[in-house]
Amino acid sequence: MSQRQTIITALNAACRTLKKSGGYNLDLGRNVIEWPTTPVEQWTLPALAYMDKDASIERDGVEMGFHQHNLQLEVQAFVTTPEDARKAIEDVTALLWTNRNIGGARWVSLESHEIDQQQAERRIVSARMTFTVTYRTALGAI
Hints:
Elements: H1 3-15, E1 32-34, E2 47-58, E3 66-79, H2 82-98, E4 107-119, E5 124-138
Parallel strand pairs: 1-2
Antiparallel strand pairs: 2-3, 3-5, 4-5
């Protein structure tokens, strides 16, 4: 299994722990979706979706025989109120800070976050967060 897949598998498992019973504000872990293909329905809220996107490669300053990958991770929470969207940002950020070496990553950092009304007629609010997951692999591996 590639390092990238190991990180995403660990992310999926960690996201499923986002529950009030675990000390978080919301039960986002109840409905976790990797690369959503259909719109989120209101009856499934709260929900959490994630997508691993572009990964830039660094070679300078990295020991011989290795690449450093900076993987862009987009996480989107779907809730019913702006207040819950802010709580979702807090929960996801806390989860990834606690698990900043998730799946063998060297570091996870929050790059941006935004709140938007996703579907006004259904009262769905989204909180979108972008993280960079930094990890290293041997040359020729991802």
